[in-house]
Amino acid sequence: MTVFIGLLGCGTVGSGVVELVERRADKIAEITGLRPVISKILVRDIDKPREGLVDSSKLTTNAHDILDDKEIDLVIETIGGIEPAREYILSALRSGKHVVTANKDLIALHGVEILETAERHQVDVLYEAAVGGAIPLIRPLKDSLASSDITDLKGIINGTTNYILSKMTQSSISFETALAEAQRLGYAESDPTSDVEGLDAARKLTILASIAFTSTVQLSDVRVQGIRKITASDVRFADQLGYVIKLLAVGTDREGRLSLEVRPSLVPKTHPLAHVSESYNALYIRGDASGDLMFFGQGAGSLPTASAVVGDVIEALRNLQLGVSGHSQHVYANHKPAVPSRDFLPYYMRLSAQDEPGVFAQIAQVFGETEISMSNVLQTPTEDGHAEIVVVSHKASAEHIDTTLKRLRQIEQVIDIHTVMPVES
Amino acid sequence: MTVFIGLLGCGTVGSGVVELVERRADKIAEITGLRPVISKILVRDIDKPREGLVDSSKLTTNAHDILDDKEIDLVIETIGGIEPAREYILSALRSGKHVVTANKDLIALHGVEILETAERHQVDVLYEAAVGGAIPLIRPLKDSLASSDITDLKGIINGTTNYILSKMTQSSISFETALAEAQRLGYAESDPTSDVEGLDAARKLTILASIAFTSTVQLSDVRVQGIRKITASDVRFADQLGYVIKLLAVGTDREGRLSLEVRPSLVPKTHPLAHVSESYNALYIRGDASGDLMFFGQGAGSLPTASAVVGDVIEALRNLQLGVSGHSQHVYANHKPAVPSRDFLPYYMRLSAQDEPGVFAQIAQVFGETEISMSNVLQTPTEDGHAEIVVVSHKASAEHIDTTLKRLRQIEQVIDIHTVMPVES
């Protein structure tokens, strides 16, 4: 039997989906008993030249050709952004169509509305491709890890910033140079704000944390810090100390209190996350029974992301064939409070100060008085005659570090505190 | 509603399962609508003192108390080995009971018989815990990756050998010393043959390759080489060249011809598999659409392995509740032929020779004549007055390397060729 599919959007991911559904149709029919056929494709410009397997007779610029088509049982959304994607998806769900989407923004911001609508109409809405490209993350979190309480998530889930930080590390170049290169190669958009400020990672963390911690997580629960302030000297100091700098999305559940952060961090070179380079993504998970798990793979790209979409199509078709659609949604009734992290971590701080006798003693005294000991100190002269000082503290709470920073800023000879990052173990 | 479970075996994994089912019963009931209760436990010695949550009134030494109990709908097998586990599982399946097992030996050797029996009786048999402990491997391979043709598997799937090789690397000690330490700490058995000779990894590769390559793979299809011959000097030379030595289970599908090998290999320090240390396991997968994926986690241990078992229990209960049991089996009708690998890889060779003028020229000449060029050469004097020579070749086929080795052995001054390992990229 054939299942007709409507595809909304035919850009990078959409055209990959067209290719992959075509290529895998026999295999999917064998696995699920249902043959997927993309019968209509919504595009903005019907006359734009298209490569590959896109059949121009299927193109339409009118979403209603798909949403009102009673033959279509499944809609794949790869338009991205909030509107009109949200309206289209809600309309599809209301008319009993299953939905597969790669839209992280939409799920992060309107996930509850969409999942509840799907539940009400007993249809599936699946979004494995919204986070981590080809890497299966949502299904493992939902399924296998139901046997563990997840206490920690730690992920590299934004390819653009990981590319930039990898380049800064490999080639000892500045943030600006690395960003320009990423833009030239198409890894960063012309307006890179959403990526480099950590907002994209924050949206993905919202989705992952909801599932991992079985709570309705809001985007506003996530504290966000980007990578714009990271300099070549931070990268160099980190390297000397045995670390690499990564933009991490971190979520913890400590007895029902969540802490959710996106922030640059020092990752030990011996940690598996340290070796997730360029546009790869990875998610580290700690469960009370499972222990530490990591999932790694291509975080973006046409075919990798399409492979996650098609994986969801296969699940939706299998559910349809078995008559068990609409059971995979998870809207969590409880909203666990989000609080600043109380975990004790070492912190990396880079500051500049006047290169005068006694300055270092004053800095050391502040650490002593706030009862934070230093595990590593590096001091180097700068070109303009100042001293650049890097301190790595022993484990302390974020609150404790804040007090120390406030006291350090009161020292007259301290010119500026440039960077403060937690150190992962 | 309650589902009664019979547990066969209550050792390391079994007692973890008892603890975890108890701890997670509410959560599982919430997810699946069915409450799991372990009602009977088969043990060898009923009087043995047991810690934790094992209720002694549930113990029995007679398997028929479980297999003939009509109240029991699901049987968990954690005895290990072939018999009587095989007979118990087949009997359970024949009486319509679902089975979850952690038994890699049984699935590797009798998987087809067991899966066919389950299919005939429309019940589930699930074995996520058989490979990779807590790491979800079988479900991602089956589900998400149905959208990709998998061409390559590369895994560190034996914790004992990984522990030994990690210790040899970290502490520059011999294989024998590292093995003795592993035995002392309980990471290696008193008879370590199955682990150090690569047989355990070969069995797990048989299971993974069957699923990844959708073919009935036989254990005899796997070429196996263990780590007994790896010396401290191999580890040191590898390190100098930028590699670590890992026992890899490697499977490739080249247009329907499989190549399956377990063998020590040189892994570049920049490769994610290089950082899988001690008792961790990892599986690297390459799919035509998904690109490269890696799954990493605890490969053994009571609770990690139990978490995989309980994950399967949850799947079986969910299927039971939805009335869709018996659809997750995969017995593959086709048997893709297993052939020696024809992939071109660089090879590492360590040999000893008389430290005489002209010997090195002869060795270099053999490489020249067999048209294999050398990318790296290290020569060091040994304590007994010989020369130890390490050569890393450019990419060549295994067949080509065999010819070179044969020719090298014919050189009079070549004393021995100690180690030959492929180099991963």
TrEMBL record, chains A, B:
Annotated GO biological processes are:
methionine biosynthetic process; threonine biosynthetic process
Give the EC number. 1.1.1.3
The UniProt record gives the binding positions of NADP(+) as 8-15
* Entries under Pfam families matching the protein: ACT, Homoserine_dh, NAD_binding_3
Q: Which reaction does it catalyse?
A: L-homoserine + NADP(+) = L-aspartate 4-semialdehyde + NADPH + H(+)
What PROSITE patterns does UniProt report for this protein, alphabetically?
ACT, HOMOSER_DHGENASE
At which positions is NADPH bound? 104
Q: Is-annotated flag, keyword tRNA processing? A: no
Q: Which cofactor does it need?
A: a metal cation
Going by the UniProt record, its keywords in alphabetical order are:
Amino-acid biosynthesis, Metal-binding, Methionine biosynthesis, NAD, NADP, Oxidoreductase, Sodium, Threonine biosynthesis
Give GO MF terms, alphabetically: homoserine dehydrogenase activity; metal ion binding; NADP binding
Q: Is Ribonucleoprotein one of the keywords UniProt gives this record?
A: no
Its annotated pathway reads:
Amino-acid biosynthesis; L-methionine biosynthesis via de novo pathway; L-homoserine from L-aspartate: step 3/3; Amino-acid biosynthesis; L-threonine biosynthesis; L-threonine from L-aspartate: step 3/5
Q: SUPFAM superfamilies per the record?
A: ACT-like (SSF55021), Glyceraldehyde-3-phosphate dehydrogenase-like, C-terminal domain (SSF55347), NAD(P)-binding Rossmann-fold domains (SSF51735)
Q: Which residues form the active site?
A: 204 (proton donor)
ACT domain mapped to chain residues? 348-422
Q: Where does L-homoserine bind?
A: 189
PANTHER family referenced in this protein's UniProt entry, alphabetically: HOMOSERINE DEHYDROGENASE
**Which family would the database say this protein is a member of?**
Belongs to the homoserine dehydrogenase family.
Q: What is this protein called?
A: Homoserine dehydrogenase
Natural source organism: Alicyclobacillus mengziensis
